[in-house]
Amino acid sequence: MAKGNSEARTGWLLVSPPAVYTVLLLAAPLATVLIYSFLTGGKGEVGAPVTLQNYIDLFTQPVYRAVMWRSLTISLMVTATTVILAYPIAYFVSFHVSPSKKSLWLFLITIPFWTSYIIRVSLWRTILGYNGIVDSLLMGLGITAEPVNILSHGFASIVFTLSHAYAPFAVLPIFVSLEKVDRALLEAGQDLGETRWTTFLRVTLPLTMPGVIAAVLIVFIPTVGDYVTPELIGGGKTPMIANLIEVEMLKKRDQAMGSAIAVAAMLIVGVVSAAFVLANRRYLGGRK
Amino acid sequence: MMKAPGLRLYAMLYLLVLYAPILVLPLFAFNDASIVAFPLAGFTTKWFGEMWQDPNLGIALRNSLIIALSTATLATVLGIFAARSSVRYQWPGKPIVMGAIMLPLVLPEMIVAMALLVILLSLGVPLSIFTIIMGHVLICMPFAVAILTSAFQSLDRSFEEAAMDLGETPWSTFRLIVLPLVMPGILSSFLITFTISIDEFIISNFLGSGRPILSVYIFGQFRFPAKVPAMLALGTILVCFSILLLIIAEYFRRRGVARIGGKDTGGFL
User: Fold this and answer.
1) Which domain holds residue B239?
2) What's the structural domain count of chain A?
3) Does B132 touch chain A (CB under 8 A)?
4) For residues B7 and A222, what is the distance between their CA atoms, to the nearest angstrom?
């Protein structure tokens, strides 16, 4: 017992510097944002009365609703695109690449993620924009006579750019879950008369659903709050939640409203994530 | 291995699209035309010279290096504390504390930035390079903890016990036995957090009150078409640099795995 106590004390002592740092710089700021969201703000001041008005405005005024709805749609589309495109890659690396080369493949897939996000997003602006690389290529090949300017379709270009930026994120968790699949089960499935395709649908896919859900969450969570892509690719005309928070906090100087949007964003992320996890449980539960 | 020509072709295409922007970067950085479009106009290195014409680049580069070096050091040191404590000791409340430390991984960065901004403004703390470092350490720490946790986990506890039996104190055991064995993990954590900090935009933009920081500078310059070729040149250098750092980090990570005698289980994440 005494040993247990001293071990707990050493553990606490060791973890205290990062824990205190997190409390001061993460917990306290988040608590402040939560409190601010129930106060009245404007002109850089926040104060009484305590109110729910920020949240009422947020869910009734069309301007706010449109932005929140757009963020949610864009990030769900990005999530679907990345995860569906990533699954075959993860499957290929796990099942068809020799074990000694798997690390190399994963390394190749993750490298683009570690290169500057700003540069990658800005590059898409140059590639897709008016008289940009795609336009010059299409016109040079005689496919179109006029610049297409893909960038003018804000919504679609944002979905495309974000899907590209988050692609590596989706591959890794799916790959990890595929690696854990017992290969003997697949042989058993085929011995029992399943085709390769039905074995995949009835054995491999259900077994790897946890990895798919992890991929969904890893892509969905940061894309809801993305700031750079709507700004650079959408040209500021297709704002998402993060851009709205900036406008409220810094341009309108209404920290209470800004805080309410931040809290709402965290709630949306939380609710959608929980929904995915629950849906997955039901899907797997229903198969037993 | 089973043959799957369709999947292999798909994998090749996937990699090609993934790398498209990075391949375009050097192509137009060395292109002798101020408009970024096909057809290519000829080879030049003038954009690499031109980017230095703007004195702000030097300032931004210096600021970013200060921020990234400080962030990488602080995040890795704090990460060592957290990872060591969570792997080696049992203590009540571990899931909550470790969860809180890892939380920035699943919070949209804008929310972390704005929450910090709100509290800094309300306390009257002036925005500076220091406030950017504070924010960067917060978002880099989870990565450091993740890398270091796996480094500490693959450590054989009997080495430590042997050292203690032979009369070493807990501290000298840590310094002489544990630290050298997890050193590859520490280096890898340092390089990864350095890379994240150099690339980070949102916190650098909102917590620095307009000081030139590399990522913020690039973001601003890309808005002027005339500046784009010089930015492509800068981007080429930065991408080469990132890839170099990553290869070094991967090298140390693998050496760490090999040194402890474990099995390689893949990449950083």
Assistant:
1) 45-259
2) 1
3) no
4) 29
